């Protein structure tokens, strides 16, 4: 702690028990005698940018939007932690700015922002709190959240007014600092894969958890960006055949206070505080700027392997929580300008379940988000984004609005409209569930697909109508406004919930290790434990579970739309029944690579890779347009046809009747569109038979004109796929209980 900070520290007095509208304690007005000169500089770009200034002098330009502030101090820290403060006197369009000669890359910094302390009107300025630059491109240090980092007195006896009592203790010793970063790298040698949406297979993974236990990655690189870039990690992705990795949040994030008090940490990272900075804890190259170059090298390595990088981003809320949360950045810069507040401006409008919601309607907030997105595309090389709780971003003043400023800006932005955009199409507010409602530029996580597939394979669907829609691209949700089948990102599991193995092993969540009395996590898991809860030595139960895993994986990869897998599901990763492992930064969440040495799980990996390769090879499995269901030739064959177990085309009555068996015929000769040379797209035709019943069923294979013969491509009743067998059209085939048969049509 610097000497000036010691002089400014003040503890609120007990007589302020009911709050102090004038602000408790003394106002901080520091000035250091050894302050460096500060030149006017420029208001753009925002953030800290090292450059050559007037007269060829090198230094850093600092610019901070702080609309309602009265003054802004730039705080520079040397290697010993000594703080030097300079006042930014230039104010242009609500941006405080200045150029400081001699400040070079690697220098740590933060801000202290002066203004009124009046929580009743939403004003929460407190210059005793060192604030992280929202545009900081690297962050050094970690948020520990002691009482000093709260703008109010966190432990005030009367908690109902605690947020109104200002805490004047200096937070600088306890918070991370931004880092000035060298601008470099124009990506001239990078080759983006630019995989078309219809050809994409997404693999959701956690940067740390994916390599933390990988035996082929050097120990010092495990759990880092460099670890993910290592050939041993990339080799697995290439063998599997995925086209994109979707990284759980890599923006700098903070751990919640309630987790730190229980000795836990936020593992998933949905608690962002720095939208331009790669999370420092995932870097092996140091945290004073090295994390930026390491992230770029990871992206380059993945691109070289033909794999795109999609970031899971959290722009709906920040780590500052509600009125009782810490003051880390935006709350202290301009609370009213950045966050949605209720009519009682002491309180935050919370559409996210995390305490606050960014006020995206505000131009400067929208600018922060879009500047961040463009930065990650143009300077960090990423290929797309998955937006957490995207409905919260699409809200205008209150309601979700598909003509909202956020969606409008994205639609016209020349950089962002060209990358992959995935919406998690809901939030926790009223009217927040918006599956199928996002505009044509967007794809969506389709949780109706997840629910239908889970219910079908556990025998809980009343009929097969829902399953038919989900298998064929969810036209009921997306066939409007020019949207295509790839608007549906199909998934059975995600980071949030059970792993695929746990889905067939547990019917009750087991989240005791989270320390919340097993109250956290969803109770609607739509899972089936195959007769025994949890781990078992019963070989019959284990064999059934592995078959169910093959059924679920095969269904996912045969469905029209964009499939998303979760890291480790292809080899039987388990979390021991924990369906909310957001705070389990340990073996519970990390991928167990030893599973590949076990024959049963290795077989699952081989089947998954085979299915993905089959998908890549056959355009009929990754259509770019919805099925018409109409015959285009005299023989009556349609691009999509549905069959009962009797081998007859389904009638309207069949769709409404209870059933556990469904036959789906995909015609390869009726694929709309043309290839890159303008030629018609022609492929093999397939018949998929999905049987979820607990007893075998006799299925009559459709005869002429649909087929003369069939070749068995996949049979999930077997652990390993054997030699291709041929079956005659019209034959009655005994399909084992709980099995998928994929048959290629032979004429």
UniProtKB/TrEMBL annotation:
<feature type="region of interest" description="Disordered">
    <location>
        <begin position="1"/>
        <end position="52"/>
    </location>
</feature>
<dbReference type="InterPro" id="IPR017853">
    <property type="entry name" value="GH"/>
</dbReference>
<keyword id="KW-0326">Glycosidase</keyword>
<dbReference type="InterPro" id="IPR014756">
    <property type="entry name" value="Ig_E-set"/>
</dbReference>
<feature type="compositionally biased region" description="Polar residues">
    <location>
        <begin position="1"/>
        <end position="10"/>
    </location>
</feature>
<dbReference type="InterPro" id="IPR006047">
    <property type="entry name" value="GH13_cat_dom"/>
</dbReference>
<feature type="domain" description="Glycosyl hydrolase family 13 catalytic">
    <location>
        <begin position="204"/>
        <end position="615"/>
    </location>
</feature>
<comment type="similarity">
    <text>Belongs to the glycosyl hydrolase 13 family.</text>
</comment>
<dbReference type="InterPro" id="IPR004193">
    <property type="entry name" value="Glyco_hydro_13_N"/>
</dbReference>
<dbReference type="GO" id="GO:0005980">
    <property type="term" value="P:glycogen catabolic process"/>
</dbReference>
<keyword id="KW-0378">Hydrolase</keyword>
<feature type="region of interest" description="Disordered">
    <location>
        <begin position="511"/>
        <end position="532"/>
    </location>
</feature>
<dbReference type="Pfam" id="PF02922">
    <property type="entry name" value="CBM_48"/>
</dbReference>
<dbReference type="Pfam" id="PF00128">
    <property type="entry name" value="Alpha-amylase"/>
</dbReference>
<protein>
    <submittedName>
        <fullName>Glycogen debranching protein GlgX</fullName>
    </submittedName>
</protein>
<dbReference type="InterPro" id="IPR013780">
    <property type="entry name" value="Glyco_hydro_b"/>
</dbReference>
<dbReference type="InterPro" id="IPR013783">
    <property type="entry name" value="Ig-like_fold"/>
</dbReference>
<dbReference type="InterPro" id="IPR011837">
    <property type="entry name" value="Glycogen_debranch_GlgX"/>
</dbReference>
<dbReference type="GO" id="GO:0004135">
    <property type="term" value="F:amylo-alpha-1,6-glucosidase activity"/>
</dbReference>
<feature type="compositionally biased region" description="Basic and acidic residues">
    <location>
        <begin position="511"/>
        <end position="526"/>
    </location>
</feature>
<dbReference type="InterPro" id="IPR044505">
    <property type="entry name" value="GlgX_Isoamylase_N_E_set"/>
</dbReference>
């Amino acid at each position: 702690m610097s000497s000036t900070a010691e002089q400014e520290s003040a503890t609120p007095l007990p007589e302020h028990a009911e709050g102090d509208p004038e602000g408790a304690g003394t106002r901080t007005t520091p000035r250091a005698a050894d302050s460096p000169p500060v030149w006017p500089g420029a208001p753009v770009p925002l953030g800290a940018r090292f450059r050559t200034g007037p007269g060829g002098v090198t230094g850093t330009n600092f610019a901070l939007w702080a609309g309602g502030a009265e003054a802004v101090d730039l705080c520079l820290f040397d290697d010993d932690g000594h703080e030097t403060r300079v006042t930014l006197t230039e104010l242009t369009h609500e941006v405080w700015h200045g150029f400081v000669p001699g400040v070079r890359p690697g220098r740590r910094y933060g801000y202290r922002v002066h203004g009124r302390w009046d929580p009743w009107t939403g004003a929460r300025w407190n210059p005793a709190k060192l604030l992280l630059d929202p545009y900081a491109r690297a962050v050094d240090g970690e948020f520990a959240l002691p009482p000093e980092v709260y703008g109010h007195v966190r432990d005030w006896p009367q908690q109902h007014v605690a947020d109104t009592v200002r805490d004047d203790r200096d937070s600088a010793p306890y918070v991370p600092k931004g880092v000035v970063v060298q601008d470099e790298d124009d990506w001239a040698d990078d080759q983006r894969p630019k995989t078309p949406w219809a050809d994409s297979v997404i693999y959701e993974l956690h940067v740390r958890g994916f390599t933390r236990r990988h035996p082929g990655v050097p120990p010092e690189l495990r759990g880092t960006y460099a670890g993910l870039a290592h050939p041993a990690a990339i080799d697995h992705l290439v063998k599997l055949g995925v086209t994109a990795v979707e990284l759980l949040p890599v923006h700098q994030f903070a751990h919640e206070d309630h987790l730190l008090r229980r000795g836990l940490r936020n593992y998933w990272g949905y608690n962002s505080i720095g939208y331009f900075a790669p999370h420092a804890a995932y870097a092996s190259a140091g945290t004073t700027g090295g994390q930026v170059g390491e992230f770029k090298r990871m992206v380059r390595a993945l691109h070289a392997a033909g794999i795109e990088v999609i970031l899971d981003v959290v722009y709906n809320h920040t780590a500052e929580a509600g009125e009782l949360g810490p003051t880390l950045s935006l709350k202290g810069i301009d609370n009213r300008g950045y966050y949605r507040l209720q009519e009682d401006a002491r309180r935050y409008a919370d559409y996210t379940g995390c305490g606050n919601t960014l006020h995206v309607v505000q131009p400067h907030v929208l600018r922060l988000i879009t500047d961040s997105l463009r930065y990650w595309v143009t300077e960090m090389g990423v290929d797309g984004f998955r937006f957490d709780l995207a409905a919260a971003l699409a809200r205008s003043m209150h309601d979700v609005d598909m003509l909202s400023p956020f969606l409008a800006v994205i639609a016209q932005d020349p950089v962002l409209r060209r990358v992959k955009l995935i919406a998690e199409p809901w939030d926790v507010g009223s009217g927040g569930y918006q599956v199928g409602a996002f505009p044509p530029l967007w794809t969506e996580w389709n949780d109706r697909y997840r629910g239908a597939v889970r219910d079908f394979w556990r025998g809980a669907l009343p009929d097969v109508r829902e399953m038919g829609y989900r298998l064929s691209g969810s036209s009921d949700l997306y066939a409007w406004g020019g949207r295509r089948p790839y608007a549906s990102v199909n998934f059975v599991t995600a980071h949030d919930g059970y792993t695929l193995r746990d889905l067939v092993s547990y019917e009750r969540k087991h989240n005791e290790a989270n320390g919340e009395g097993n109250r956290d996590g969803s109770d609607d898991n739509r899972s089936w434990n195959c007769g025994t809860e949890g781990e078992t030595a019963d070989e019959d139960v284990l064999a059934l579970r592995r078959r169910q895993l093959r059924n679920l994986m095969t269904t996912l990869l045969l469905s029209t739309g964009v499939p998303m897998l979760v890291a480790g599901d292809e080899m039987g990763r388990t979390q021991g029944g924990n369906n909310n492992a957001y705070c389990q930064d340990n073996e519970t969440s990390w991928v167990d690579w030893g599973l590949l040495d076990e024959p049963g799980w290795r077989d699952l990996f081989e089947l998954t890779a085979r299915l993905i390769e089959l998908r890549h090879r056959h355009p009929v499995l990754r259509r770019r347009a919805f099925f018409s269901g109409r015959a285009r030739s005299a023989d009556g064959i349609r691009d999509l046809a549905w069959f009962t177990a009797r081998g007859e085309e389904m009638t309207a009555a069949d769709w409404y009747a209870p059933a556990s068996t469904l036959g789906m015929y995909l015609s390869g000769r009726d694929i709309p569109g043309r290839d890159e040379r303008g030629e018609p797209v022609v492929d093999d035709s397939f018949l998929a038979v999905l049987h979820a019943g607990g007893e075998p069923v006799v299925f009559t294979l459709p005869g002429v004109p649909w087929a003369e013969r069939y070749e068995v491509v996949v049979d999930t009743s077997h652990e390993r796929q054997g030699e291709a067998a041929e079956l005659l059209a019209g034959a009655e085939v005994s399909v084992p209980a709980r099995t998928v048969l994929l048959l290629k049509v032979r004429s």
